[in-house]
């Protein structure tokens, strides 16, 4: 690898760390519910990313890969945690959305989001908060991409039906 | 007619999840069912409006951040393994990282077991972590996160004992907040982001006889550093870009302009940093075109919720009123805002319609969250509509830089801006406010957009940027200006370029016209300083082994009496090919060198910056000595910038005790 590539990789890595640190931490935190091990997991995921080779493809945004590493590390920690009867509740944990409860209380839209199924919420969050693509969400959750599309579509439709009318009435000026 | 919006495929289409072929198929299918593109587009827009609302809502969520030390460990781990600088001084944290990396990757113990072990011993863990933190940096970060002490920029006097006291109080607080950050509760954290700057080092001429870099006329770092110091804390060291501090000040360079739009002068003096070394200044000045051309300015204003404080949107409005006073009646102004959905507030309007512009300005309110991507596209579109051939066409982005990453992924934005620069629409970036200020991103945007970047923290800075420097900042007289200095190995053993760390270019880039570099505006001055070590000093720099296969014959050294040769390359503002000229500097006896006042002042600013960065180079100089140097060389100081600098040094002395 030439010097140029090294510094490119360095920059690429830094950009990822800076921009993904926060979403990854939120995501891991919602699985583990404890900040300290979440931080360890996120740090570890970055260190692994650095060790990975993404030759030449610096535009390729390794978001989904990082999410998956965090998810797997977090689930491993949960599995080994004897204080929890995991197999029953793992799905529930993984499919609860990684946003704070105060956010879900914060506005009209969010209150409606909170009424969706856990799976719909999760996919919605991964799409609109974390900006992952269908494919990335699929890879992360183990669902198929088309199924992710269906879940998202249903969630969105449900939301829009309830809210859109209200919003248009309340804030006509922001609609332009 | 079918209700096509009820199809998951429509959602996927609207969100850009279908590939091109699928999208075509989908549109064809709709056409067959009697739905035209227009109807489809209407629904797509509608859905995307809703999507943006959701984006905005989710963006309001509390941001969890890695503790500063942890992030630094990750970043250091990466740079260490490449730079193999593990043993550079003071890198206890780096060593810790190494242990961690080895632990994770080499031992049989899996990382998860390790993680678990670490997380189980919660209390013990917290202790070790406190030890491993680079305490000074965390302190700075935490102090920066603390609310700004009530120091008003209007008067400079409050920078005195009071400020120092506040600082020590904050010091204690910062430990607490550092501690609580290690606990379970997420603490509101400073979200300002700066790119890591690795200080340059001395380079042996035998290893690298050429030093190549792009000029930089940005001044943002100075105003930003000043903001930190006014607020009672030292700036984080990566926020300090020494060349931007130096270039913040106008210098009296009287040079004769010849055929080129820029003139270069090279001088030397004894180095105040080290005895027996010399300092070389490369001074550059741009011409001032006599006729001012028409201006087409598109202001892209961030009116997101985060702009809603007195030092942001209201200051921005005042700044715009200053601009209006400086423009000619026929120049046009457009206003585009962004916050959630982007919108054009004012199409291209001649400045003579002041009332209309003022009304538009007064109606701006902050609210919603940021989506810079859509706004920037709209702004460039307007700029193109009102394009003035041969005039100044600029998009001026005013923001606190808090773009929602993702929709406006940094790389994508940078590409867009770069693309538009080729169409001769340049970008100016104005940074406002603090707290979630994204310095690194703004700097990169302005670099790629053939633009400049200023940070505005108060009305007098707004005056400097818009009143005194407006022509400089708007009128580009030369672009892609690169400098290459060749040192004569006969006299020079090693050299170091001060600052310009992120402007360095490879030697071969100098002649490569495709390589982007800095722009220079009318009347701008640019200063670069080198420290030079002669052959009479022993330096602890590693020598490169002799080559085994190359011919043994000694390289012939020319018997030139020149110390160095400066080569300059630039392009005309709308040119594609560069022009080169050279300015050599004769070697003079060190004892005979006299110091030039302007050079001394620039050096004092550089020394201050180096000290703020904790750079070894300035360790022989105290802030007091720097202050004396600056005071002695203050000269005529029309804008009171230099005397303000003296005050800043005073305050730095108080803070660094």
Brief write-up:
The complex is a heterodimer of chains A (176) and B (657). Chain A is mainly α.
Order of helices and strands of chain A: HHHHHHHHH
What is the average per-residue confidence, as pLDDT of chain A, rounded to a whole number?
74
Poorly predicted tracts of residues of chain B? 81-190, 404-408
Helix content range of chain A: over 70%
**Tally of DSSP helical segments of chain A:** 9
Q: Biggest interface, which chains?
A: A-B, 70 and 71 residues
Mass-distribution shape of chain B:
globular
Structural class of chain A: mainly alpha
How does this structure look, described?
The complex is a heterodimer of chains A (176) and B (657). Chain A starts with a helix and ends in a 6-residue tail after the last helix. Chain A is built from nine helices and no strands. Chain A is mostly helical and 176 residues long. Chain B is an alpha+beta fold and 657 residues long. Chain B contains 21 helices and 16 strands. Chain B has a six-stranded mixed β-sheet, with helices on both faces. Chain B has a five-stranded antiparallel β-sheet with strand order 1-12-14-4-3. In chain B, strands 2, 11, 13, 15 and 16 form a five-stranded antiparallel β-sheet that branches. In chain B, helix 4 packs across helix 5, helix 12 packs parallel to helix 17 and helix 20 packs antiparallel against helix 21. The radius of gyration of chain B is 27 Å and the shape is globular. Classes of the chains: A mainly alpha (176), B alpha+beta (657). The interface between A and B is large, with 70 and 71 residues.
Write the layout of secondary structure elements.
The complex is a heterodimer of chains A (176) and B (657).
Chain A: H1 3-32, H2 35-51, H3 63-80, H4 86-94, H5 101-106, H6 108-115, H7 118-128, H8 134-141, H9 145-170
Chain B: H1 8-14, H2 20-32, H3 37-59, H4 68-83, H5 92-105, H6 111-120, H7 122-132, H8 135-145, H9 161-182, E1 203-204, E2 210-214, H10 220-230, H11 242-246, E3 262-270, E4 278-286, E5 295-302, H12 313-326, E6 332-339, E7 341-350, H13 354-362, H14 372-385, E8 392-399, H15 410-422, E9 426-432, H16 439-448, E10 452-456, H17 459-468, H18 470-474, E11 476-487, E12 494-498, E13 518-521, E14 525-533, E15 562-571, E16 578-586, H19 597-612, H20 623-632, H21 641-655
Parallel strand pairs in B: 5-6, 5-8, 8-9, 9-10
Antiparallel strand pairs in B: 1-12, 2-11, 3-4, 4-14, 6-7, 11-13, 11-15, 12-14, 15-16
Helix pairs in contact in B: 1-3, 4-5, 8-9, 12-13, 12-17, 15-16, 19-20, 20-21
């Amino acid at each position: 690898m030439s010097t140029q590539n090294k510094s490119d990789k360095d920059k690429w890595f830094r950009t990822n760390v800076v921009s993904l640190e926060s979403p990854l931490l939120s995501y891991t935190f919602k699985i583990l519910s404890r900040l300290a091990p979440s931080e360890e997991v996120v740090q570890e995921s970055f260190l692994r990313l650095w060790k990975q080779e993404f030759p030449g493809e610096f535009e390729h945004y390794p978001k989904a890969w990082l999410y998956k590493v965090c998810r797997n590390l977090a689930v491993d920690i949960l599995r080994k945690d004897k204080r929890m009867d995991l197999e029953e509740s793992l799905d529930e944990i993984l499919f609860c959305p990684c946003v704070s409860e105060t956010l879900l209380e914060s506005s009209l839209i969010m209150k409606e989001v909170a009424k969706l199924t856990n799976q719909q919420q999760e996919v919605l969050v991964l799409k609109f908060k974390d900006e992952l693509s269908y494919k990335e969400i699929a890879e992360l959750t183990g669902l198929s991409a088309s199924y992710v599309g269906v879940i998202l579509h249903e969630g969105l439709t449900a939301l829009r039906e309830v809210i859109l009318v209200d919003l248009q009435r309340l804030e006509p000026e922001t609609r332009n | 007619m079918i209700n096509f919006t009820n199809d998951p495929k429509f959602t996927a289409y609207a969100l850009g999840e279908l590939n091109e072929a699928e999208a075509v198929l989908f549109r064809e299918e709709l056409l067959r069912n009697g739905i035209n593109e227009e109807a489809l587009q209407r629904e797509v827009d509608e859905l995307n409006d809703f999507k943006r609302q959701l984006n905005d809502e989710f963006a309001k969520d509390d941001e969890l951040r890695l503790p500063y030390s942890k992030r630094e460990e990750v970043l250091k781990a990466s740079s260490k393994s490449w730079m193999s600088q593990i043993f550079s001084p003071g890198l206890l944290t780096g060593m810790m990282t190494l242990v961690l990396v080895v632990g994770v990757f080499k031992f049989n113990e899996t990382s998860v077991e390790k993680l678990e072990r670490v997380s189980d011993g919660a209390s013990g863990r917290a202790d070790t972590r406190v030890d491993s933190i680079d305490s000074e940096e965390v302190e700075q970060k935490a102090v920066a996160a603390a609310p700004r002490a009530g120091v008003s920029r209007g008067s400079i006097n409050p920078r005195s004992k009071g400020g120092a006291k506040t600082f020590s109080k904050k010091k204690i607080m910062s430990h607490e907040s550092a501690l609580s950050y290690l606990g379970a509760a997420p603490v509101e954290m400073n979200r300002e982001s700066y790119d890591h700057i690795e200080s340059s080092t001395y380079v042996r001429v035998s290893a690298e006889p050429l030093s190549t870099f792009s000029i930089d006329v940005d001044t943002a770092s100075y105003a930003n550093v000043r903001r930190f110091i006014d607020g009672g804390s030292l700036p984080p060291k990566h926020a300090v870009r020494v060349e931007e501090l130096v270039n913040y000040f106008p210098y009296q360079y009287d040079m004769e302009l010849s055929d080129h739009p820029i003139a270069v002068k090279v001088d030397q003096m004894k180095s105040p940093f080290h005895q027996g070394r010399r300092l070389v200044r490369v001074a550059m000045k741009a011409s001032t075109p006599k006729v001012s051309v028409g201006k087409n300015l598109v202001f892209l204003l961030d009116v997101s919720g985060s702009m809603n404080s007195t030092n942001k949107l209201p200051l921005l409005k005042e700044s715009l009123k200053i601009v209006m006073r400086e423009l000619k009646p026929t120049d046009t102004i457009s206003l585009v805002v962004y916050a959630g959905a982007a919108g054009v507030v004012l199409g291209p309007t001649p400045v003579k319609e002041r009332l209309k512009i003022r009304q538009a300005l007064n109606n701006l309110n902050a609210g919603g969250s940021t989506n810079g991507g859509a706004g920037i596209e709209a702004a460039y579109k307007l700029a193109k509509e009102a394009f003035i051939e041969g005039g100044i066409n600029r998009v001026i982005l005013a923001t606190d830089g808090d773009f929602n990453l993702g929709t406006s992924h940094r790389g994508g934005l940078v590409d867009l801006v770069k693309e538009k620069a080729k169409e001769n629409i340049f970008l100016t970036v104005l940074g406002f406010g603090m707290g979630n200020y994204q310095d690194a991103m703004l700097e990169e945007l302005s670099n790629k957009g053939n633009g400049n970047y200023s940070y505005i923290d108060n009305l007098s800075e707004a005056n400097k940027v818009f009143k005194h420097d407006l022509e400089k900042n708007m009128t580009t007289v030369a672009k892609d200006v690169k400098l290459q200095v060749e040192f004569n190995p006969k006299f020079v053993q090693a050299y170091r370029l001060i600052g310009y760390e992120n402007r360095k270019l490879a030697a071969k880039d100098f002649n490569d016209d495709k390589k982007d570099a800095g722009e220079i505006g009318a009347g701008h001055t640019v200063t670069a300083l080198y420290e030079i070590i002669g052959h009479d000093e022993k330096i602890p720099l590693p020598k490169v082994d002799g080559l085994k296969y190359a011919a043994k014959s000694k390289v012939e050294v020319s018997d030139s009496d020149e110390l160095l040769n400066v080569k300059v390359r630039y392009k005309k503002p709308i040119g594609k090919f560069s022009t080169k000229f050279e300015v050599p500097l004769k070697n003079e006896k060190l004892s005979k060198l006299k110091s030039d006042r302007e050079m001394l002042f620039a050096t004092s600013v550089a020394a201050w910056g180096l000290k703020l960065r904790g750079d070894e180079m300035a360790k022989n100089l105290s802030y007091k000595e720097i202050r004396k140097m600056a005071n002695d060389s203050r000269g005529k100081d029309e804008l009171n910038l230099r005397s303000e600098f003296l005050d800043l040094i005073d305050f730095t002395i108080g803070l660094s005790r």
